[in-house]
Amino acid sequence: MAEPARPLSVRKQDTLRRLEEDVDLWVATASLDGTPYLMPLSFLWDGSTLLLSTAAGNPTAKNLQTNATTQVTLGHTRDVVHITATTEVLLPEALTQSEGDAFASKTGFDPRALKSPYLYFRLTPIKIQAWREVNELSTRTLMDNTTWLA
After folding, report:
1. Which of 17, 69, 81, 149 could be disulfide-bonded to 74 (CB atoms 3.0-4.6 Å)?
2. Interatomic CA distance for residues 101 and 112, integer angstroms
């Protein structure tokens, strides 16, 4: 039996906790010809944006550089946070020392220390949805057009 639907305010709190505590998320991108690509990446949430990093030559990096919008997802199918975001591409030297250090501390790896080229990507959420069961689907949108609804 499904638990009762959470009010939006509780769902927002749960979502913010996941953004703070989770380490990895799924990044969905597509190439210019429409080829989909799904990759798990570690992330840092700074309270308003997500910071990701991946090798400059892999499909996710290439797709994020050519398409300014992406979707990322945390959790599993019975407790999901789904985020649509705009993407900003950052070279490692564009990060402040504290941003790079915070990313390395949270994710357990520091792309700045690698010899192969890595890029960072700052994702700004424009829409956030969260739900557990069908009873939360009709009110799953927590943020729309960058504005929290709860």
Report:
1. 81
2. 10
State residue 1's pLDDT score: 72
Closest CA to 87 of 104, 67, 107: 67
Q: Which helix (H) or strand (E) holds 100?
A: helix 97-107
| CA dist., res. 102 & res. 49, Å (int) | 13
Q: Dihedral of the CA atoms 80, 87, 96, 115 (nearest 10)?
A: 90
Tell me which residues of the chain have a pLDDT lower than 50.
none
Rounded to an integer, what distance in angstroms lies between the CA atom of residue 27 and that of residue 150? 25
pLDDT number for residue 3: 86
d(CA 128, CA 148): 8
8-143: CATH architecture: Roll (2.30)
